[in-house]
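Lay summary. Proteins are chains of building blocks that fold into shapes, and those shapes determine what they do. In this project we predict the shape from the chain. Here is one chain we studied, written as its sequence of building blocks.
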Amino acid sequence: MSATHRRQLDEASARWSKDISFARLGMQVMTAFTVALLLVVWFLARRDAQQRETRRNMALEDKRRLESEVEERTAELSELSSYLQKVREDEKSKLARDIHDELGGILVSAKMDVAWVEERMKKKDSEIAAKLERTLLDNLGLSAALDWQVHEICDRAGINATIATPEDDSMIQPQVSIALYRILQEALTNIVKYAQASNVNIDLGVTSDTVTLLIEDDGIGIPEDAQNNLLSHGIAGMRQRVRALHGEFAIARRPEGGTMIEVNVPVRTEATKDAEPALA
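And here is the predicted shape, written in a compact code that computers can read:
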């Protein structure tokens, strides 16, 4: 019995050792499989991260390239726009010079001839002279007529004159143009006769509803009593013309010396019959 039990015990111990060895082998295999699986997972995760980084870098590179192309195209368009603007300005300047060179002399001669006729017709027929004056205003415009009047009177008297006028004065009604033309004519005549001025500045301004004429000189200034004397130096006539157009007239001594006349009249107005009696 003892031998039998010993043999059974030895066999059980052998089976136990064999089972333990098998279990140990199984654990090693499972461990190796797990490590291999972890390595595969790590490799796949690393490759995916690298691919995402590559795609991100490519996207950034594409963005920088597109931004660079946009900047280049924008610079090209800006340069082209500047070039076209310069070409247009050069063409406008050339056209202005050509018009001035070719037509300036003709217009000056025509204005001088009209003025020559006007001066002589005033002594013979005031109505015809007024028609000629209105022709000058209608064909050349108020700005051109004032410019010619200023230089015609001031150049002859040796007075330095500057004049600023708007580019477009077409909205000014004929009766307003004639009144302002006559007011400037009267004011310049007074300056030449009495002011002892060296410089005259004229500014014609036009807004949507008002025409402003500003006349300044650096002479001795209007006498204090003349400002209240409605009959002094044609003041009454100028004031009457402005009143007929429902405008405002002011004349005063300048603080720095000389006289300032300011006229404000509506651009479009229903003038009274006293506004321009010669053309009635």
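What the prediction tells us: The longest strand covers residues 199-206.
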